[in-house]
Structures are given as structure tokens and as C-alpha cells.
Amino acid sequence: MYPIAGVRYGCPHRDCEINLCNDCICKYTHQHSIVEYLIPGKQYSFEQIFASVPHLLGPTHDERIETKTLWENTPKTIGIYFSADRCPPDRDMTSTLAQYYLEAHASEHPFQLVFVSRDNNEESFNKYRAQMAWPVFPFNTEAALVEYFQYPPMPSLMIIKADGTIMTRRGRNYVLSKGVEALKAWAQGEKLPPLPATEFEWSGVYCDGCEMSPLIGQRYYCSTCGNYDLCSACEKKGHDHPLELIPQPADD
Hints:
This protein is α+β, with helices and mostly antiparallel strands. It has three domains: 1-37, no CATH class; 40-187, Glutaredoxin, CATH 3.40.30.10; 197-246, Zinc finger, ZZ-type (Wheat Germ Agglutinin (Isolectin 2), domain 1, 2-Layer Sandwich), CATH 3.30.60. It has helices at 46-49, 88-106, 122-129, 143-148, 171-178, 180-187, 232-235, and strands at residues 9-10, 19-20, 35-36, 56-57, 64-65, 77-83, 113-117, 156-161, 166-168, 201-202, 215-216, 219-221, 229-231, 244-246.
């Protein structure tokens, strides 16, 4: 059936391009577990969001944790951290996040966090997760979740509320701006006010003038040049064509 109508099933392994409809799920055998893919933009419970994960791994190498421990104590939010060891900005963010995570857990407002790896191989994954004090998805079980969140850039920190709605897709920006106070607020279910335009980080966008990467602050776009962006400092220097100020996107 193309396209698939209704419920879609597939293999969560990144190298398996398996897609099945509801009628074919019982007729197909596969070497890995087949899971139900979630519909991007649709609201799900924590249990549904993490249903494709058989178990979690703890900070020690052989420790296995039941996935349901993420929501057993009825947290008001859960942070989902997408990152990979191969990217220097990701490693820097992991170090910063680890510091604030431990500070939050030493306070009265512990923050629930889980790591979703985008590493290319299991060796890098194991090396990277050794730096983390929070649970992680096993290697090669992330495909369904990555697709549900529409392939978030790296590093990304998604904050999910208890009702399954996305509080913010830009947790990383808030952590870099507010530090441990961001984690404490999320642990209490509090939504932080939008970051000022001067602090907003445009993930995946760089300034074609000064080559600031990622572009931080107000973003100006040239539709004539196409794929051409300037930061506020370079916009003031002038450009051959009219520039459009791109509004800061909503958190969710």
C-alpha cells in the first residue's frame, strides 16, 4: 500500500527501511522488533512516546533500567536530549548539561532526563554515554522517536509535559541562558518566558557575512540571493537587496 493509510509500523533500527500497514503487520517476520510509529504533531502519553524503547541503560555499562521508571514518579516534565559524540558543540553541551543536571538533583527540584544517541556506531555511543549521569536509549533504538520529533538538529533538548505536549523544542538555548534554573523550572512544570531576540540561537543557520555559526540574535534573510542570512551586525553594514527580518519561531 502506498502511501500507507492508518497505523504505520516499522523497525526502529536506523539501517532497516521497513514500513508496514495494519493489515501486513501479522504477515511479516523480521529480525528486530517491529514498533508502531507515532504521528508527528499528535499528542501522546509518556508511555506511548517511549513505547518503542525496550529498556533504558543506566550510567554504568551493564545497568538496565525499565523504561517506565521515567514516568513512574509522575514527573511534570521529561527532557529528551538528542546528541552525538562526533560533534564538538554536542560534547560541549553535554558537559554543561551534566553540571546543571547534578546541581538540580542536589536541590529539591530533580529533573528527569533521557539521552537519545545520534552516534554512527556503538563504540562512539558507549564512549559518549559514559559522560552522562542520566538514563539513555540503547544504541540503534531511536529511529521512531527521531521521526516523531521530525529529525531535531543536534544537539537538541526537548522538554515534554506530563500530558505529552511539547513545552519547548529549544531547551538547549534555555540551559545556556538560564543554567540550572531552567532545569529547576521544568522540574516544577513551569514554562520559561521566551528568550530575548538577542539571545536566540538559529540552529543550522550561519551568517553569510561574518560566518557566525550558529547565527545568534536577529536573523535577516535575502530572498533574492536565496539561502542567504545575516546577523544584526552584518545587516547594519548594508546589502545589495532588500532583507527580511525572520520572526523568532514559537517554542513548540
